[in-house]
Amino acid sequence: xxDVRKKIGSIGEQMASEHLERxxxxxxxxxxRCRYGEIDIxxxxxxxxxxxxxxxxxxxxxxxxxxxxxxxxxxxIRELAGMYLMKNENExxxxxxxxxxxxxxxxxxxxxxxxxxAF
Length: 119
Fold this sequence. Notes:
Layout: H1 3-22, E1 26-34, E2 37-44, E3 48-58, H2 71-87, E4 94-104, E5 110-115
């Protein structure tokens, strides 16, 4: 991954975290990693434990960010969520899988689209 892509991804994850916090979610993990991969954000509210995939693109990119969430990525996130739940067996909230898409303009301002229960 190039430095520019890493920077855009990092900006997007920060914006997504701030968006979730404004919606009264508590951020439990950012960049949760295990040997099988990574979940961008794990957050919760009173009802749900939310596993978020964050996709960020510049406005010059023709493909909408959410379209880059492939079936193999969905499968991997579900597997990682299962591992997280096994390690946190006292977690009683209902799991949910969201996609947060962010399109950045030249000023690094983002248009955020939060798709709850995306898969």
